[in-house]
Batch of 4 targets.
Target 1
Amino acid sequence: MTHPRIPHAAGQCPIPLSEFDRSTGDVNEAVGLPPTVYTDPSFFDFERCAVFGSEWLCVGRSEQIPEVGDYFTVTLAGTEPVIVVREPGGTINVMSSVCQHRAMCITAPPERPREEWFAPIPQVSGTARTFRCPYHWWTYDLDGRLLVAPSMERRRDFDKAEHGLPRLRTEIWNGFIFANLDPEAPALAPRLGKIDNLLEPYGLDDWATTPTDTHEDVPFNWKIMVENFMESYHNYGLHNRLLKKQEYGEGAAADGGYQPPYENGDGVIVHCGVAPAIDPAVNPTQRGLFTPVPELTMEQRRQLIFAFVPPTLLLGVFPDSGFWFTVQPETVSSHTLSMGYFFPRPTVEEKLFPALLDLYDAAIQQFNSQDLPANLALQVGMRSQFAPRGPLSHLDSFLPKFNAWLLERYGNADGGTGDG
């Protein structure tokens, strides 16, 4: 059984689509998006359907569930709780966590202490042979089939085969698991050509990830998180004490390298910077802590790859390591943020890996300690009557590409005239 798309049409875009044209095209002529796209609940309702109802949403890494029965839960687009589980035979299944009897979330804990009675349902992980709804004990197999439905024997024409958990379309790309709420959406893999050749020498599908660090109710719009991750202009100011300007400024990682233009239909936006020295990294020393991938050429060992597989996966890949973030919107001013590091499998088996991982994490957290509070301040500023659509720098080159990707989806979903 395939899960249907988010069950209401996007409707008419609350903002005239022509307003977005100024935010696409040449970065030296473009301006920022209208501030209301970060603050208006009615626009968020439109965007949630237009973007998240029909796109491939990253839910995690395949090595998070290595054995049959291993699973974890995620909430997509703020409203769709799903289970990500490895079935017998090794297939990964992404299916709804909503019981098909009375819509109970089957991964909700059956009881909680008083102080947590009304807290949000936690995201969980574990190993299971079946999934049993705690409300009426309907029990489902790992593939979503309904196995047990107590006290339904008097129900006329009741067929368990008709009441399984809805399954979502699923794709695996470089070890990342993607799911789609739209059964008719185009496949993801053919749209990722602009990064596949770059990533091939790294063998990411066999890399090992660390346990994810998940934060719910992150108090700013999901687009702010994406923009901050990918644009390099803020390295000059916000990170000036963590990065050497001469190495991450104009002509180097922030401004040079491989930056293909965005074209309609692309499933990835790529910025590949080139550092002056081999084995760069995102830490105050700007040098890698681990053994670089042996298959890389000396030229590739100068690369810093930043990629966005919209709308949810943010990816940083370096000669020795990488990190990935996923964003799942909750409301117009909040999202769930998951973060993980990943490494070539031989690296995690090295004796010094735990100690070096602590250093690696400390370095990333230094950046987060600056980025995340700044993003909150951006959300506050976007609510101001004085919030601008400011002119972009050439170091903001990601923004017009992202805006073009968004506009394409807004236009496809707009149920009105397109004129607002």
Target 2
Amino acid sequence: MAKTTDHLGRPVVAVTGLGVVTSLGAGMTENWAALTAGKSGIHPITRFPIDHLKTQIAGTVDFLPSSNLGMAALTYEMAEMAGREAIAQAGIGSDFGGPLFLAAPPVELSWQERLALYRQDDALTGYGRLLAVARKAGPSALFEAAQFGTVADRLADAFGTRGLPITTSTACASGATAIQLGVEAIRRGECDRAISIGADGSATAEALIRFSLLSALSTQNDMPEKASKPFSKDRDGFVLAEGSAALVFESLESALARGARVLGILRGCGEKSDDFHRTRSKPDGSPAIAAVKAALLDAGMSEDEIGYVNAHGTSTPENDKMEHLSLSTVFGARIKSVPVSSNKSMIGHTLSAAGAVEAAFSLMTMLEGVLPPTINYDVPDPAIDLDVVPNVKRSADVSAVLSNSFGFGGQNACLVMAREPV
């Protein structure tokens, strides 16, 4: 029988359910087929006017009822859809009975909502006008839409989770952070199961403009499917995107006792903050290096045991360079022979959801024995010497994966997953 405690005597944490929604489609089956086929979900933006904008493409999720109802509504619908898929796969009923950890974007009113408010009182201007129309607004819907914890509260009611749901927002590392919180809750013995969800429906006009002002976005609008090109010499920025992923965690002991199918093991979590710059990484890469090392240490594994890296791989000149520095520092010369690919080449950067989405795909990589490609890799960068699984998927027997999330503002989180327990 499998050992149910790890090298530190903590409960082994198993994954028993996965759910995914991205611009490639709804559900893991549809997403995995498209991802491994090298299909891109990036397309021209149709949700809001793009005249005069430098970037006019995104990986928006446009096929759901809430796709045009604002960030909060879309984030909730994607989270609920991914959560229900994961819980169903885990074979858990309507009363989940464990805590919920959600990664979600900061909440704000959309420009449509703001304009609708402002139309209510044309006699005032500025801040006074905003206060006046806010006082006249309906008592619940607008207030709830602007509360950071609303999405998690609704999910908790829908799934029957236990206790106060936790919502976290740690930039591009948020999804991995939510996973870490779920893993640690089980390790501490606070629960036998938990669900972690990353969801982000914030590909809004405001977000696009803000990232554009930071010179972070690709402006290669003519061929949207070719715009995201991680680790390529001609990369020019990331592509804003939306999506969600949910992972159901259980102590291995609990999962085996109820006869659940174990999809993989969450072996280690590592995090490290970087206060160097709001967008740039510290030049020596030390925080990212430390996050990778911390995840391996937590997992009780060496870098030689990792068979594949699901890279953060945003397609920005700075981030890809720093990720290569961190990997080559930790893995040494061996990194040239370790497959390293980026899901963002196909789905774009799903921001708060990215760490969860990529963790789910990492588990599928081990389950299916298939490495997703890094598409659009046509002009290699000689300064980044990596095996990026260029353009076409590859069969591989992988037993352990490192998944990286390196976010703006110095938020770094890494996960180590394995196919089997120790």
Target 3
Amino acid sequence: MTETGAPFAPRGDKRAVETGTRLSPKFDAAGLVTCVAADADTGDVVMVAHMNAEALARTLETGIAHYWSRSRQELWRKGETSGSLQHVVEARIDCDQDAVVLKVRVAGSGASCHLGYRSCFFRTIPVGAPPTPETELGFAEDAPRFDPDAVYGETPDE
């Protein structure tokens, strides 16, 4: 066990971290690494979240994505309430081991977004003109796959 409480190798020297074969994630000052979840079949990014050492360890152990909720300050298994569990097909870490990519298949409705969309990135930003306060977002998805109020109950604005 390391100081993070997870079974990861110590960081060691830069070369060992960047080109070696030991998993030694670099958690930030809050104890987190950024994680991008992408659809294993299409490659589309479905969400970005954060993992602490326990979330990363549980994800690797169980094959189900776990994350750290910064707003709730708790570990969460993605899809536990909605039924849209993220089954991990492959896990990757970047060269300096401070970011993770999961290739996932989403169970249930197939929605990864808490708003019911397949992806949290369901809106598009126009490119080719300077942004203004009137810049309008487009939609990459037609409609949510589930009603979030029915699944989670009404939530207050944050």
Target 4
Amino acid sequence: MSEQEKERNQTEETPVKEQAEYTPSVQAEFMREKIKQKPVNKKKLLRRTVITAVMAVVFGLVACFTFLVLEPVISNRLYPEEEPKEVAFPEETPIEEMKPEDMLVTEEDAEPQTPDPVDLEMVDEQIQEVLSQVDREFTLEDYQSLYEELRALTEDAGRAVVTVAGVTSDVDWFNNIYENVASASGVIVANNEKALLILVSAGSLNGADSIEVTFCDQTQVEAELVQKDDNTGLAILSVPLSAISSETMDAIDIAELGSSNTNLLGMPVVALGSPLGTGGSISYGMVTSTGTAIDLPDAAYKKITTDIYGSRNATGILINLKGMVIGIIDNANTSNDMSNLLTAYGVTELKGTIEQMSNNKERAYLGVHGADVPKEATTDTQIDTPAGTYIREIEIDSPAMAAGIQSGDVVTRVGSTEITTYNELLGILRSSSPGDVLTVTLTRQGYEMSVDVTLGNW
């Protein structure tokens, strides 16, 4: 082949080669894809986030409302729970002293009575037997037997006595946690079929983080404060029956509240609880005074004084020889010259307050210090003083002061109810509620007037 033909053939082959090499490059460029990220819409994202958060809050509120409000309602409808039984103590009939003239029997009242036939020989034998027992000397065995009887009495009554401890947690300078425990002796006063109710001095509960009750068998359970009376410094605690074992229920007892209206002067009594300032201590003595009234607003509490030498911080109860509670020990009202002699609130005058606290009832507040009008003042012809409640003192900023009641007034009627004694006025207050408006009729310097009193709350 000539050189010209070779060059021609090379010229014809060159474009074909370039075209073959170019075609793949064009196809590769055409099939390549570039993915771009979609731009973020910050406003839309923020809006969705806020909506989600709001919906979560609404859902939480609805769930809380359903759990806290609707769930108890539904549960009570499906499984109705009985309300606690209302605590009420039987009313005591006032004891009237027999006047000397009532002891005399006139001839008109005397009725002839035919004596029953009596075996004189048998009566003479009985008299001789009694005299022989009286003449017998009182030995040490008799003395020991007497104290054994007293000890058995205290053990039986002590089943209703408990120890209440107020526990307070705190942190010292070295960041160590420690606990302060203040204790007092209380007494089981009622069972409302839901819990045991305990009366105790509230001084040991001030600022307490938790309250622990120790029964006579040394079983400890937690208690809750039901209500506190700032007037007397006493409080009612509740211990659920579900937290008390059957063994403990068999070991403990509910105290039997006696009467402080009887003539207690000179009668022997026993102090249980902490009369000496330590739990479980016992003291014997007798009542030396009952005629003193404790000066407190809206109250007529009697102070029982004994010859028992005890602690200034004594707490507990006074019982008679029948094992019945006649007083709640509280030395806060003891005079300075008898600071270590045990005194107590009379239980009869306390029963109304115990009932109200046990039932967690709001107590009405008037704010007066009262007394009965002496009978001599009502019968004296020179002084026209009606029977009623004599107002000795008015509490500052009390509802009585706001209504215009003054010291020296005599309350004769509340609404349509006649008032002849201070206890009758207190009874109306116990049956009233805070916010009630009472129309009080009173006598001031011989003039009768009426005022409207809006009762407050303790």
